[in-house]
From TrEMBL:
This is Nitrate ABC transporter permease. It comes from Prauserella flavalba. It comes from the Bacteria. CDD domains: TM_PBP2. GO terms for biological process: transmembrane transport. The chain crosses the membrane at residues 59-84, 96-115, 121-141, 219-237. GO terms for cellular component: plasma membrane. Gene3D superfamilies: MetI-like. PROSITE patterns: ABC_TM1.
Amino acid sequence: MRSLYRNLAGLIGFFLIWEGAVRVGLVPELFVPPPSEVLATTVDLLGQEPFIRDVIATVLAWAIALGISIAVAVPAGLVLGSVAWLRTATRAIVEFLRPIPSVALIPLVLLVVGGGPEAKITLAVYAAVWPILFNTIYALAEIDPVLMDTARACGTSRSRMLTSVALPHAAPFVFTGIRMSAAIALILVVSTEYVAGASSGLGNFILEASSGGTNMDQVLAGTVVAGVIGYLINDGLERMGRRMFRWNEAVGEAAK
């Protein structure tokens, strides 16, 4: 609760500075409306069905993209992390693909899969796979060799070692990658909706609101809603991680 109060105090302080800067004329109100106006617009939009549909479209695309990313990256990370020769053989292609900005692939994706929801999901998956993949590989590299040797001495098969020894050890690292990918996937979904002109979603709403040049309160309201969704996603995953991996924190404290 103390952390919550501090966060709220910081947020309120930011809004007060923003409000004051606009009211005294440091920032032109035409381009940056005060937060009181933006918040009023946000509340009004949350009561409109078209806007709610845009929010649902964005959140649904994000959830699908993150689910696909987890389903692809975790098994791939386990395989690459446990098979040294395969990890070496694929290192060049992975290091070539990873730095490519997902937004730069929008024209290619639009040509291949079209401009529907598939485009933003595809780009979000591409961007979100890498943190989970690399965290999984890194986690396997940090496993205590004694654990693996003990499992081999007991006659444990390779597949059983991955599921019973490697995966539990790697789970906290994998979950950290998922938290990072959750934010990245949301950014890519909204960005693709904005840049590619999707038929629905928060990015499309912001694009249409900004086309007139006089609806900056709606533009900022859409941005605020996207930020709140991102905050809630990260906070929810953080709380989930604390509950799921209390044992990991306890081991870390004991090691200190």
